[in-house]
Amino acid sequence: MTGPRRRAERHVAVAFGVAALAAAFFAAMYVLGDDTQLLGLGLLVAFAGLAVGFALWARTLLPQGPFVEEREPMISPLPERRALASEFARDEAPLTRTALPRRMLTLALGVLGLAALFPVRSLLARGPNPWRALAATPWRAGVRVVNDRGRPVRPGDVAEGGVVTVFPEGRAGIGDAAVLLIRVDPADLELPPGRGNWTVDGLVAYSKLCTHAGCPVGLYVKQTRQLLCPCHQSLFDVLGGARPVAGPAARPLPQLPLGVGADGTLVARGGLSGPPGPGYWRKT
Fold this sequence. Notes:
- This protein is α+β, with helices and mostly antiparallel strands and about 280 residues long.
- The protein has helices at about 1-30, 35-60, 80-90, 100-125, 130-135, and strands at about 145, 165-170, 180-185, 205, 220, 225-230, 235, 245, 260, 265-270.
């Protein structure tokens, strides 16, 4: 039985060795390249090697059944108990006499664990912080307001009751920076405290991204002076700081403070009053 057992141990060891090499290949490809197909192939071979190794170990190196447990008598005779104790005392237990497969299994799991650290490190150390990146927009104090063609917007370009989608200069077309510029009667405005000087001749500016699911709020109801999100029918009161008055949205549209530059064009006097887009920013 020594010969077949040695061959079985070598087969298990080879399977675990293949898993270790494949895990090392995955780590190397992750560092040196960005071919997702090769990365997937490396993981496939690594886990396949582990699966084959475990299957061969169970099939060839562990005791094979069936095993029958006699229930009577409940207490084994003394000779059987001595034989069992002697069996456990021998250095021939299935899990302790297979040194080579155990070492290769430890190697495969160790290399695979080290390879998994590379993607985890990327999540922690590479790229911008997702919370900061999602909260920030190109709007800053002094940035000129432009239309979708990149042309600066002047206060007189928006008629009474008119709506224009505008962007920060140099970022025309950037979705998270889109702002709705609306002209209303200044006497009707009831903005939150501290925003009395955020408008220019009745022009108010709000983020175009709905605070419910991030859909573009592109419908302006002139009669009620409300913005409507077509995705889930959230309504925002333009005169009252774009607070939600209907629908699932629970947060007002962030407002952009406006001013007039030296050349007579509209400029931002700061960033948006809050992060644009869905309301997951609030945890309550």
